[in-house]
Design a protein that fits this description.
Strand content: 15-25%
Helix content: 40-55%
Structural class: alpha+beta
Radius of gyration: 30 Å
Number of helices: 6
Oligomer: single chain
Shape: globular
Number of strands: 6
Length: 215
């Protein structure tokens, strides 16, 4: 009897050890999973990060060629010279082919027109337009400026991605449109140019953010 009880006790002890080992292994596996899981990047977040980097790259390339500065200075005193639906003497960004976006005063570019007018537009249309993605391009300055929507393709979705680049406009910069290469401050005062001069900025006229949103 004693031998039998001893064997039975050893069996119970062995079962307890096995059960404890199984629980320990299960705990370790669960703990390892909890540590590893956050390191696995969400596919949607990875896609958004890639899109944002591509937008930044497009802005940097355009800025490097001087295109962004030229684009925000491409202002004309009479949009009726190229757009039949514009009123005579209506100032606008040169080559805009669409009416103003909701809540704005200035005419806007369609994607094709913007691609024809700027390096940034050409890159955006080749990269994102080819995938049937939409994008908006906006100029944002300080509180004294109206800013402007250059390209308006509607309201961005919840998954939209935005990136921007700051362009420095200088006091001696002029508009870039043929026949209207006046100074920026004169354009602001006389033609409704939407970017106001900064207060006490020295040789800097204004800092302008070119913001691109893709969805």
């Amino acid at each position: 009897m004693i031998g039998s009880d001893s064997s039975r006790g050893q069996a119970y002890a062995l079962e307890g050890t096995i059960a404890a080992t199984i629980l320990l292994v299960a705990f370790l596996v669960a703990a390892q999973s909890a540590v590893v899981a956050p390191a696995t990047e969400d596919p949607d977040r990875a896609t958004q990060s890639q899109l944002q980097q591509e937008i930044r790259d497009a802005l940097v390339v355009a800025a490097g060629e001087g295109d962004l500065s030229a684009t925000v200075r491409s202002w004309h005193d009479d949009a009726s010279t190229w757009a039949d639906d514009a009123e005579a003497g209506e100032s606008a960004f040169y080559g805009t082919d669409r009416p103003p976006a909701d809540g704005d005063d200035e005419r806007t570019y369609g994607p094709d027109a913007f691609a024809e007018r700027s390096t940034l537009g050409a890159i955006l249309e080749a990269r994102f337009g080819a995938e049937d993605r939409r994008y908006n391009v906006e100029i944002v300055a300080d509180e004294r400026s109206e800013g402007a929507m250059l390209v308006d393709q509607g309201s961005p979705s919840a998954e939209a991605v935005t990136a921007s680049y700051v362009v420095t406009l200088h006091e001696d910069d002029r508009l870039t449109t043929e026949g209207n290469r006046i100074g920026l401050e004169q354009a602001y005062e006389d033609q409704g140019y939407p970017i106001a001069p900064a207060d006490d900025a020295g040789t800097v006229y204004a800092l302008v953010e070119v913001r691109v949103t893709v969805w």
